[in-house]
Fold each of these.
Amino acid sequence: MNYLTRICLGISFALIPLIPRPVLSAETLYFIYGPLKFPLSVESLEIYAEEGRITKEFAFFASQFDEKNLTELRETLRKRHKINGVKFSRLLKTPLMEDLLKSMGEIFSTHPNHNGFYAIRGALISAAINQPEEGWTAIDIMKAFPTEGMSIDTELATKMMQNSQF
């Protein structure tokens, strides 16, 4: 092997880690209720948010809401939040926000029975940084979630909502 070939191979191997790889993002939400797991694609939810169209996949979930709550869900999914990504990142690292995110991590996780604290914080920061002008939405957070799926503990979410003072 000549000298030039060795240099080219060396450079090639050095650059391999720099080649962009597909980034993981939540493609599916898994609603966990006891031993049951109900999948829903983020794409179906995005279609509903953007177009108001209920896909066949989303129809079961939509049937669980009355018209008013379904409209509120769509508004919530579409709502844009504008915030400086760096300032938001700093805010999310304060003790109060970390406690809040850890509580949310009990509901929204990378796998059942794993706290999703770091995944949520990372997704929030990523969504804020990647959508600075138009602002981020809940769909952007789902897409920025660092695993292919997001588990949602529906029983715990219901308990927390019933116990909340909001």
Amino acid sequence: MELIWHGHSTWRVTVGETELLIDPFFDNPKTDLEPSDVDEPDYVLLTHGHADHIAHAGAFDGATLVATPELVSYCEAEFGYDDAVGGMGMNLGGTVECGDAYVTMTRADHTNGIMTENDSSAGMPAGFVISDAHPTDADAESTAVYNAGDTSLMSEMRDVVGEYLEPDAAIVPIGDHFTMGPRQAAIAVDWLDVDHAFPQHYDTFPPIEQDPEEFADEVDATGSDATVHALAADEPFSLE
């Protein structure tokens, strides 16, 4: 499995021959890429409907869109997704097969209004566990990464995601103000009992400026054995 962070909460995850792009938003200071510089993925996964997570979803309208049914419907109407491809609406707790990947939608504690002149709800905000095996078939040979989306610390990370979905790695927001900050994100990493942790959703706007080294120190302070990787944007990372 390969991970590429494109800044903010935008990730490209490769599982086998399948390319998944999460929350495309390239107007952030970590990347110099434009959406047109990025190859069309097979799937676009959206955690929720805020502008800094769906801003460039329309640039990849040949991909299959994976999100809550409400958000899929909004994006199909707003961005003109290819009718021949369409969207894959799913909901919390469900698992869908996306090429060589299995995607399980998890809860996130956040808001999810789409702030337009006709304010609407995009359903529940979400996170995703992406794996090369179905959760019921996962074993020591399989690999899974949990993207928590925009969220606060919640006991579901310990009681459901870590306990039953057993990710090897966690991508967690550390920016504070709108999501968890470094301390709460570190507790999440400890609860999830993962081997690798990746910070996201930081340094994009003044309210969420953070030093990822502080996050790494907080992870160490919990007693977690997870290795923190504060990735440079647009550089691939191989997750074994």
Amino acid sequence: MGGLGLVLHPTRDVSEVVGIIERWATRNRKSLLVGAADRHRVPAGVEAVPGDELAARADALISIGGDGTMLGALRSAVRDPKPVLGVHLGRLGFLVEIAPPELPEALGRLLDKDFTIESHACLACDLCGDDVVAFNDIALVRQPGSGFVTATLAVDGQRYGYYRCDALVVATPTGSTAYSYAAGGPLVSPAADAVVVTPSAPMAGISRSLVLSPTESIRLELEPNSAAVAVEMDGQVINDAATEGTVAISYRRDAGLVVRFDPLRYQERNQLKLSLLDLPFLPDQLRELLPEELRRQHDQRELPPPC
């Protein structure tokens, strides 16, 4: 394996995690790369490269942060997908798997190629160009005080109806747990291939979520009476005052590669995270939410007394 590219959370302190990685890289004679904008946040031995070259120069990426940082890493490598290892910094996340104490073992397994790849689809939008994509969702969002998003829907060229709502969210299965879910959309298995279209606070027109095949093309055309809308991709504003035009959206399989060391354990953790959103869970599953030390203390208290 050659160099590892570091993708850092934009504001959180990542020095401890970067230090773990840097010491491991020194022991194993592996090079580390980081985008030039983050040069001041890493040790001197980490090579700074232009941000748009980081994914191309690295054999794998290490995302340090949460799901937002992970999504950024996946987007940066969409032209030439590279394996991305997510390191969690403590908040609820559905993509990241590794906690900082697990890093030395995880990096060793990464070096030995002892891992599996979980492929992720993305949505591409021709409003923004082929190289601008979303792994969670594309959203048309009304500007506060400016009225409603009013847009017609066409699937494979066939017009089906219109939306009048606060926001219109088009999501991948991965993104179904994010904005789409908050808007009332369904939770979709990450193993499924599907696109979910969900209106937020619908006032008229189509009022329910629509689940489409990944092979169907989607076109959303703003109506003349629509308010000015912002177009967001994975929460990032791409256009902040669109008043006309058409957004064409297509689905791309295998656009992102996520490193998994223990897919079953990761799946169990995500089931618990989903239970925090609404899904029912068993009381003993709460044990898995506890830190390891607290789990041991809990298990010791549960042991029967000696005879």
